[in-house]
Amino acid sequence: MNIIKKTSFFIIWLSVFIFLPYFVLATTNYDVYDMPFPPNGNIISKDGIVFNIEGIPVDISVLPGSPSAPEQSRALEEGEISENAIRLKVSAEGFNPKNFTVKTGQVVVLVVMSGDRTHVLRFDDPILKGVAIGISGNEIRGLVFNAPEKFGSYTFYCDVPGHRGRGETGIMHVESGSEKYDFKGDTSLKIYKNIEIDEDKIFQVFPESSLISEDEVVLTVELIPVNNTATPGCPIAPKQSCALSEYQIRKAKEKYDIIRVTASATGFSPNKFRVEPGQLVNLIVSSWDRTHVFKFDSILLRGVAIGVGGKESRGISFNAPEEKGIYTFYCDIPGHKGRGEVGEMYVGVEIEYKIKEEEALQGNEIPQNVIRLHIGAGYMKPNEFTVKSGEAVILSVISDDRTHVFKFDDASLQGVAIGVAGNETRAITFKAPATGDYSFYCDVPGHRGRGETGVMHVVKNSEKESKSIKKEIQPVYRKNGENIVSKSKLMLASLSEITKEDKIEKEIENSDEVEGKNFPDDNNINEIKDEDDVQKVYLEQRVQRLENIVDKIIGLIKTLIEKIF
Length: 565
Prior knowledge:
Elements: H1 2-27, E1 32-34, E2 43-45, E3 50-51, E4 86-91, E5 94-96, E6 99-103, E7 107-114, E8 119-123, E9 133-135, E10 140-146, E11 152-158, E12 169-175, H2 188-193, E13 211-212, E14 218-219, H3 246-255, E15 259-264, E16 267-269, E17 272-275, E18 280-287, E19 292-296, E20 305-308, E21 313-319, E22 325-331, E23 342-347, H4 357-360, E24 369-376, E25 379-381, E26 384-388, E27 392-399, E28 404-408, E29 418-420, E30 425-431, E31 436-442, E32 453-459, H5 470-473, E33 478-479, E34 482-483, H6 487-497, H7 511-514, H8 531-564
Parallel strand pairs: 4-7, 6-12, 15-18, 17-23, 24-27, 26-32
Antiparallel strand pairs: 1-2, 2-3, 4-5, 7-10, 8-9, 8-11, 11-12, 13-14, 15-16, 18-21, 19-20, 19-22, 22-23, 24-25, 27-30, 28-29, 28-31, 31-32, 33-34
Helix pairs in contact: 6-8
């Protein structure tokens, strides 16, 4: 009994520790108005307070680069600089101007322009230790912060060795009083939106969620485009809806394109869906059993998150990433990802229902070519391989670092494509085409140009093909003149059911010739006699997987108890 009490208290405190930050972020509501330096940098509230993208006020006294320190912008173009900005040009001759004046607590939009080489602006006073801007030659960067509450003169300088000694210094004068941030005169707000918004044409797919413009750009309540990379719950992240009824979901489907994913102990259904780059995605996550938290692995979609209670549905709207690829999503509740609550969103690439390598190779007597191809930054190893025309090929693609998408150039092999996440292995089986050279490459933008390419050489097959390539052709067998096994059901059993002794007298050229034919010679093929056999194979595989999952859970519980006691 004592052990049970201790375990219960441990689980309760662990749950509080994990979910309290999510609760705080979700219930925090900052009135955000502007982000002067798109697409990164800090945020300014209507009250003139500078926040980071997680909704926490910045601290100008911490070390530069700290999470709570002011964040400098990316390199800026001239047209992106706010009219409210204080501009400093720095060169070998020093800063120009050498002095500027602000009010205590004022929002300071500081822009530094390099006239020649690398410079680093910093302040002497420890109270402004976190205010630092580093720029390369002929570059422009900015930073936003609240001026100190203490009036006085604060010296700034270039921190590159030798530059301060040659006169690269200046003074920021802080006067008593306050000056409200002039939003109306700030052109950067229009640049950050980068769209003309007609407020009369703004709509909302899900109640209490983000707004959407006529051009299908997802916006915050302040009409600023949401940032998919922000922390969930912060002001500029996509906002999930309230709990939705089935009636609300049905009405939304009648009016908009909706993707609905159901989460349960057995995983997500569907666990794959496809969108186009930049497309407006209206996603509903429904819970079949208990609490689930839908999230993406990629930093590009960090802000897209939906938490649902048991038997609950919620929605969220966001714009898909512009970068093509496969983005993995999962349930963020501890242990749920490990038991299989994962899926993939395909952006600009075709959905593939591929088999894992171990599943493809479970029949080690199968007389087929097995090619293992590694992909990493700038390489494919091997970058060429040879197969025989008409033979079945198992191609196993292994990612050595990040997401890759293997594809062929030739239209005849358009269906042979494999997407792999970082350090993942996936395989596909296909029939080698006619003789010739077929180039392949990684379809992730920029990867082909850096050398992720190769060639498949297909040579003439001199031997008579006497083996049935079931995985590629997937024939329909007949019993008493009626189809008993469909293509989709044979996909599960094809590789595991073929053995070395399987023979078919007639060479099969394509699936169209096989469709609907009878195979009278029972000695030449291990036929699946009826549909029940297929179901039996499928159920056995499912039971085995469930047993493996249960074993893993029991092992984790034992390990946890041993560590506690």
